[in-house]
């Protein structure tokens, strides 16, 4: 069984502080959606609201059309995997996994059978009789996963499930989680602050900041076409250069950056360009060249670092400190003047930040 | 040389003190109970052949077990509320719980004399609201002794249980709810078993305390509610029957240890992590 999750206009407060503002999100049946953001962005609050550990001040939570908003946590039928595993320390691995089945009034023989089958799937059946205290972090997380999956919930939620594991195990576990989730087709919400984790595991990712969703889309779109400066910075666009349009000639737009440098943009590539905008580029979207005649931002090169595929330069420009890459065949020296040429296919044009 | 034996050197004064002032006197006391010319266990036969003394033993066991059960129950509920309270209120509640401990046992037992006496607060109240026409005799009953001892020991159970309940992680309780356990099921299957270590410590403290109590049963129970402690005092200080008093002491030590062991075995069955 798998159901879509719809969150509508959810608002939540901790005491007088508003931690979630008018948040709406829909997760399709069988889809895995990540909530991604720094701590305090509201992602865990959202999860706790859906789980029923917190009450929203406004808004509704629908699972397959059924309103969960006023339901107590134990009636919501949601599988949860916690950051600290939250295993029952006094129960064996098998009893931990069978716990949810026991609450559903399933006979001891049947729940033992199902719990063992689930432990088999996560590769832990030999440890069925151990207490959680005798398990490693990875094993504990598998037990937590088995315990949440065995009740066959219509919705699974993960709260930073891998943040207590070491790097290698983290990658193995996220592949495993994704495979189990795919195989069961369970609708899932995955909370993390790790961008790589979110992008690698999810169908869609909601990037959150200050209790709002900044952009909700597939990892590909988020990575290549961020919708605003916040998301751009989050996905690694180091250079955000404010620009002002001076003239428009058909699809050609001439815009000016700080220091009076003029650049040409083509609306065929970027779509409608507003009068004031921000040019966003990663380091590899800004090419450093010694050719001072090239159309680009005049810069004074600072520290050079070797990346293997390119050199990277810290550059001082009239628009502030920027980061640009330069070719390996043509190393430039610190202290040299250079031009930083934006590569249109790797740049984005965004609305200016209001601040 | 010094390094290798440093541990022994440091522990020596305390160890010697324990041996000289505790182990030797206890051994000597228990030793005298086996010195009867009528046989090795004659002193114990004496004790158990007396219907009166058997009654005292049963009464003491009954009073201390009931006291333990009530103190744990009341202490658990209170500790649960305290553990769930926000920081500032929690400190206040803990101070309130510990406050009675600042006065002596005798003073606190005396308070019950004032409350339960014929002209006591409780009787005056009951007569005033018309529950009874004449004052009830509440002092010198088993109930009075139990009430006074529960009052004495509840702060101890609250203190031991607050720590244990605070250490139950919130997400474990939430995990239980997310798996469909009703609040009652979470309490029975998660919170109670995880509180077992605290319950054991509390039970041992209350049981040993109430089983060996002297002042409270003496004041509130009097001659009519004689317990092992008061009986032992009577044997030693009134009858000057030192062997009889030592026998009572030995029986109390053995019974206390037995009950404590039985409690921790019971606990291990509830929670395999409890030691």
TrEMBL record, chain A:
**Of which family is this protein a member?**
Belongs to the ABC transporter superfamily.
Q: Which UniProt keywords apply?
A: ATP-binding, Nucleotide-binding, Transport
- Source superkingdom: Bacteria
Which Gene Ontology terms describe the biological processes this protein takes part in?
quaternary ammonium group transport
The record ties this protein, via SMART domains, to: AAA
Q: Which SUPFAM superfamilies match?
A: P-loop containing nucleoside triphosphate hydrolases (SSF52540)
Asked whether the UniProt record includes Nucleotide-binding among its keywords, one would answer yes
Pinpoint the ABC transporter domain residues. 5-235
The protein's matches in InterPro entries, at most eight in alphabetical order, are given as: AAA+_ATPase (IPR003593), ABC_SmlMolc_Importer (IPR050093), ABC_transporter-like_ATP-bd (IPR003439), ABC_transporter-like_CS (IPR017871), P-loop_NTPase (IPR027417)
Q: Name one Pfam family in it.
A: ABC_tran
Asked if Transport is a keyword of the record, the answer is: yes
Q: Molecular function (GO) terms listed?
A: ATP binding; ATP hydrolysis activity
Q: What's the name of the protein?
A: ABC transporter ATP-binding protein
